[in-house]
Structures are given as C-alpha cells and as structure tokens.
Inverse folding.
C-alpha cells in the first residue's frame, strides 16, 4: 500500500505543472458553455462525463450554432481520434491489469495525463503498482477540471476579457511536448507539424490542424524507419 500511495502522489506531482494551464482553460469552457446556451448543470455534467476539453469546446460552439446531434457526435469522434494513438502507446504497460482497472484508466486517458504517464513508464521500471502513478495523474487532472469548470460557470461573463486566459492552453501543450523531444524522429515530427500548422492556418474547417498532424506522423514514421535498421546492426 505504501508503494501504491507513493506512486499515486508521484503522479499528482508530475501532473501539477500542467494543471496550472488547465485551470484557466476550464474557466473559459465554463463561461463559454453558458454563453452558448447550455445550462449550468449540463455544462458541469459534460466536464464530469465527457471529460475532454477540446470536445467540450467544440460541442459548446456547435450547440450555439444549433447543429444537429449527429453532427456534434461525429465531430467529437474525429476530434478524439488521437486517443487511439494514446491507447496504443499505453497498452503494453497496462496489459496485465484487470478489465476494471483498464476501464478506469481509459476514462482518465487525456492529453495531460498521458504526457506525464508515458514519460514515467518509459523512464522508470515497470512494477505491479505502476498504474497508481497513472491514477494519480489522471485523478488530479479530473479534479482540477471539475473545479475550474465550476468556477467558470459561477463567474460566467464576469470574467474580464482582458485576462489572457486563452494563452494558457498553448503553454500547457508546449509543456507536454518539450519533455518528449529526445531523438531526431520526434523532434522532426514536432517541427514539421508545427510548420505545416502555421502555413495551413487559413484553411477552412480547421483542416490545417489535421494536415499538420498527418505530416508530423508521416515524418516521424519515416525517420523512425530509417534509424531502426541502424540500431539493429
């Protein structure tokens, strides 16, 4: 039990720097959800059940535009496709867990929780209690997201527009990406994706983001394939 608690709190500590950027992001979502026509209860329940910031923002915007329910569901599915990559990456480290644990951790598998957890899994020796680190990272993020959403709902439109809260999200993702830039394929993938995102920023329907993601994946895979044979030798 001591080992489990130790790993749990290690996960919380590893997640803490990212929580600083998540909190203002939750404030923005809470205020945006209300202004989009969602009730305070629906806005808070989305944070508790959906628990996906980007999807919640998209949903609030689509609800405001009176989009059909099917369009909202399909859009969220596309936005969250990246979680398939997260799942594939984490799967080898949790394959021996019970289905109950896998279901619980899959709920906590968000961008920020994944970033902290995968670094821990790759750098530390895997033990029967390693998943408690994952739980600590995910649960601390979940709690922060619920509280920040509630504050955003409570404050609503009283949040001054002069507060640069929207800049917190890019800073959070930068903090997530930098620690994993350890080899040439990963660095090249990040740089190429960032460059394409800038060049394709004006494309409609946010297609630039999809194009940037595909570019980064392809570049990373090509360079990884070139380096693997050399390592085998």
């Amino acid at each position: 039990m001591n080992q489990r608690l130790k790993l749990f709190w290690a996960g919380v500590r590893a997640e803490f720097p990212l929580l600083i950027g998540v909190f203002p992001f939750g404030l923005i979502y809470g205020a945006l959800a209300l202004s989009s026509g969602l009730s305070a209860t629906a806005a808070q329940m989305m944070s508790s059940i959906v628990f996906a910031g980007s999807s919640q923002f998209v949903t609030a915007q689509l609800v405001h535009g009176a989009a059909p329910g099917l369009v909202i569901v399909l859009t969220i599915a596309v936005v969250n496709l990246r979680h398939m990559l997260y799942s594939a990456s984490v799967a080898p480290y949790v394959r021996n867990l019970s289905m109950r644990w896998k279901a619980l951790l899959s709920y906590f598998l968000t961008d920020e929780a994944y970033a902290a957890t995968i670094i821990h899994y790759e750098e530390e020796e895997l033990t029967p209690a390693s998943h408690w680190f994952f739980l600590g990272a995910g649960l601390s993020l979940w709690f922060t997201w619920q509280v920040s959403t509630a504050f955003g709902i409570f404050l609503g439109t009283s949040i001054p527009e002069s507060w640069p809260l929207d800049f917190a999200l890019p800073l959070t993702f930068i903090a997530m990406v930098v620690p994993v830039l350890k080899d040439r394929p990963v660095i090249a993938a990040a740089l190429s994706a960032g460059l394409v995102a800038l060049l394709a920023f004006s494309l409609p329907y946010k297609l630039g983001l999809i194009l940037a993601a595909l570019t980064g994946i392809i570049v990373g895979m090509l360079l990884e394939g070139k380096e693997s044979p050399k390592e085998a030798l």
In short: The CA atoms of residues 24 and 163 lie 10 Å apart. The chain has two domains: 2-161, 181-228. The mean pLDDT is 83. DSSP finds eleven helices and no strands in the chain.
